[in-house]
Design a protein that fits this description.
It contains 15 helices and 28 strands. With about 525 residues, it is α/β, with parallel strands linked by helices. The chain folds into three domains: about 140 residues, Rossmann fold (3-Layer(aba) Sandwich), CATH 3.40.50.150; about 180 residues, no CATH class; about 150 residues, Rossmann fold (3-Layer(aba) Sandwich), CATH 3.40.50.
């Protein structure tokens, strides 16, 4: 390719919709002398060049992007595959360049026309101006595609990428496993319940410090330049199809304009946000599982503030989040709540110790967090109940049609019927503090069981469409006995599938199926 010189590369620069200056990448088959010469031509225009060979170009780009220019000298037969591997790694307004041999110019021109005609294809949103002339094809990138970075790769990948984000691990807790501490019984169900694990394997936990131009948006979304950081995801497996981000192509997501920062906060911050701000269940499982790193982070950064979000329409000043954080020992003056995205240049994050999804796990250090919170919060009644039935009032999700009959049954067996939402957080903790037997409808109302100091028995009533395993995770550390009583939901999950409608379906507790087992259980309760 000695005939090329730097002319085609300069032509690519002119095709761009903005100045190109950050970096250039050369894509091709074998790193032979011709490609080296092309790399020199690119370098002479842009000052730097990354040479990437045929093997897994997408993996290489993922580790080294994003780029302003990507130059391809590959055979035409590989062009579409290479373009799809490379184009998402361009910055908005960047240019993909293909330099064709004389014999392949026509094929490449046909390919380029096809790109300009994309309509329904999800790649269409990435394609700006396309031009092919004299063997040089340029495709301008439109929009920004953010690389989804997972927990296991964050430390390595962010050290090599060009996103101008740095990461330092402040503290690391090793992976481990333990045997579930409760004796678990699952009573008669039409659907075999999954994920009732007897061994809990928990991964490495890391306390990380990020620096750079970082944006924190509602729902624990954290991004910078062209990466979405792992703390943005509830689950270890990416699920970007949410209100916070939209899947573009595999491994990438796009953000709408509402996720742009509206102001800048100076100083050091610790992320204590919820994936569902204002939701008590997600707060008491996922959010407080991030508290484990606060003490070490505060020691490192004495001016550290705890940052969390509320939805824009939620104007409440006093919140259960703040009450929980203060109970843990965070000074009220160190709490910062925001309702719109903000930019920070120093952010500490802790990986979640709670994972209510495959692979289900909870870190054993969560029990120390529960104890610390309970010791500070609990407003114990003068005569604390030993048997508590946790009920639900209202709501259109997972309603129990015969809830009154269920409450009457448990009340007749000496249970205090408790509606958590009718009590302060301190009294909710106090009602659980001395309870020996806790029963109730599966869901977030049951999560205050974490405050129980002497729990002997947990009884969970649920529909067999309810696939969350929170109560199972709580009992894995609290011990004692756990009895599940499953009843059919109004809406079952599809065969070999899952649906939101089934998960949130109403249901009827099946006394015909379970009364004998319940009666026997009540007769032998030890409290």
């Amino acid at each position: 390719m000695t005939w090329l010189g730097s002319g085609p590369v300069r032509r690519a620069r002119r095709a761009a919709s903005r100045p190109l200056h950050d970096a250039a990448l050369c894509l091709g088959g074998d790193l032979d002398a011709d490609l080296d010469e092309l790399g020199s031509a690119v370098g002479s225009v842009f000052g730097s060049v990354e040479l990437v060979g045929e093997t897994s170009p997408g993996d290489h780009l993922r580790r080294t992007g994003p780029f302003d220019v990507i130059v391809s000298a590959a055979p035409a037969v590989d062009l579409d595959r290479l373009w799809r591997a490379a184009h998402p790694h361009l910055r908005n307004g960047g240019v993909f360049v293909h330099i064709a041999s004389r014999s392949e110019r026509r094929d490449v021109a046909v390919w380029a026309r096809g790109l300009s005609e994309l309509a329904a294809d999800r790649w269409a949103s990435m394609v700006g101006a396309t031009r092919s002339r004299a063997g040089v094809t340029t495709v301008v990138k439109r929009g920004t595609d953010y690389v989804l970075v997972s927990h296991h790769e964050a430390n390595d990948i962010l050290r090599h990428r060009r996103d101008r984000v740095t990461v330092e691990v402040l503290l690391e807790l090793p992976a481990g496993s333990y045997e579930h501490r409760a004796d678990v019984t699952s009573h008669d169900t039409n659907v075999e319940p999954a994920a009732l694990l007897t061994t809990i394997d928990h991964p490495v936990q890391r306390l990380r410090h990020y620096t750079g131009s970082l944006v924190v948006a509602n729902g624990s979304l954290v991004y910078a330049d062209q990466v979405i950081l792992p703390d943005s995801f509830r689950y270890y497996a990416f699920k970007p199809g949410t209100k916070r981000m939209q899947r573009s192509v595999p491994g990438f997501a796009r953000l709408d304009a509402k996720r742009a920062a509206t102001r800048r906060l100076e100083g050091n911050y610790y992320l204590l946000d919820s994936f569902f701000p204002g939701h008590y269940g997600h707060h008491t499982t996922e959010t407080i599982s991030r508290l484990w790193g606060w003490d070490e982070a505060k020691r490192r950064f004495p001016d550290l503030k705890a940052l969390y979000t509320r939805w824009g329409g939620d104007k409440r000043e006093e919140t259960f989040e703040a009450e929980t954080f203060v109970a843990y020992g965070i000074d009220p003056s160190d709490l910062v709540v925001v309702r719109k995205p903000v930019e920070v240049d120093s952010l500490v994050t802790a990986t979640n110790m709670w994972h209510n999804h495959e692979p289900h796990f909870i870190h054993p250090d969560m029990q120390a967090i529960w104890t610390r919170l309970g010791d500070a919060l609990a407003d114990v009644p003068e005569t604390p109940p030993r048997r508590v039935f946790v009920s639900r009032s209202g709501g259109d999700k997972r309603g129990t049609h015969n809830l009154s009959a269920v409450e009457d049954y448990f009340a007749a067996h000496g249970f205090d019927i408790v509606y958590p939402e009718q009590h302060s957080l301190a009294r909710q903790a106090g009602l659980m503090r001395e309870a020996h037997v806790v029963a109730g409808i599966a869901g977030s109302a049951m999560f205050n069981v974490m405050f129980a100091r002497n729990l002997r028995h947990l009884i969970v009533l649920a529909s067999d469409s309810y696939t969350a395993r929170n109560e199972h995770l709580f009992s894995s550390l609290l011990g004692g006995r756990l009895d599940y009583f499953w009843s059919p939901a109004d809406v079952p999950h599809p065969p070999r599938g899952w649906s939101e409608e089934a998960f949130t379906s109403s249901w009827t507790f099946d006394f015909g199926r379970h009364r004998q087992a319940l009666d026997e259980l009540m007769a032998r309760l030890d409290d």
